[in-house]
Amino acid sequence: MATMKIPMTVPSPRVDAEQLFKAFKGRGCDASVIINILAHRNATQRALIEQEYETKFSDDLRKRLQSELHGHLKKALLLWMPEAVERDASILKQALRGAVTDHKAVAEIICTRSGSQLRQIKQVYLNTFGVRVEQDVESEASGNHKRVLLAYLNTTRYEGPEIDDKIVENDARVLKKAVARKHKSDDQTLIQIFTDRSRTHLVALRSTYRSMFGKELGKAIRDETRGNFEHVLLTILQCAENSSFYFAKALRKSMKGLGTDDTALIRMVVTRAEVDMHYIVSEYRKRYKKTLYNAVQSDTSGHYKTFLLSLLGPNV
């Protein structure tokens, strides 16, 4: 469920476009007006505003936002404007081919999206950047980390609720052997199971592994794998069981300690606001005894803070 609030009566795209045009006039721009409009329109409404703005003023709204805004607010609003698949493709490109490869962002986009979403992202990535996402993964990742990402991108997984208990039990035994011995063939077994099985199957596998061997599968992965390979396997496992907790935990980490990881904070708030942020907000409060709203409020400032809080909705 989404958290950003759309007014009961929404102005027409033409009215919104005209108000945005006025907000850009004069010295500087009226960021409050821009936020009040764009933070409270869904993806379809934002696309219609963009079309109307270009038709009426012969100007590209995103380019105007690029030139008028600054800092984290500009980054957040520009990421907010596209529809989800275009946005995910853009995040992936920046994470893979930016100045520094952001492996956690890559894992987040690839391993938390459904098979149908990944197919769309791959097509948009190719159409937009003229290269297959697999080619950029091949270039920027390495070893088992690369293998698991490529397998996840290219494997068609069953996404229904049914499971086969015998296959689950067999997978548990195979995984026990795979994490107990450090051979390449065992790593390949890990990759095959984690990228081939449905999320429902992985949830059952986690429970069965615990029952059969008295140890959490996640701990076994942490004990026997390292680095980006470990992170991507745990991302797949955690999102299969409780994606809301995965994002709540990642959001907390982005604001924990000295300084804020604004890139991660913006990415997660923007990409989940129209999807499942309601559940993430609830999970955050349950796990950390503090609202996500208050956490973001204390770690950000100015119009940037106003925009993110608008996407989060009420302080609950």
From TrEMBL:
| One GO term of the biological process aspect | pollen germination
Name of the molecule in the record: Annexin
Q: Give the matching InterPro entries.
A: Annexin, Annexin_repeat, Annexin_repeat_CS, Annexin_sf
Report the sequence similarity comment from the record. Answer: Belongs to the annexin family. Belongs to the annexin (TC 1.A.31.1) family.
Give a yes or no for keyword RNA-binding in this entry. Answer: no
The family database entries (PROSITE patterns) matched by this protein are listed as:
ANNEXIN_1, ANNEXIN_2
Does this UniProt record's set of keywords contain Calcium?
yes
Alphabetized, the UniProt keywords read: Acetylation, Annexin, Calcium, Calcium/phospholipid-binding, Metal-binding, Repeat
What terms describe the molecular function in GO for this protein?
actin filament binding; calcium ion binding; calcium-dependent phospholipid binding; phosphatidylserine binding
Q: Name one GO cellular component term.
A: cytoplasm
Looking up Pfam families in the UniProt record yields: Annexin
Q: What is known of its domains?
A: A pair of annexin repeats may form one binding site for calcium and phospholipid.
Superkingdom classification of source: Eukaryota
Query: Record's SMART domains?
Result: ANX
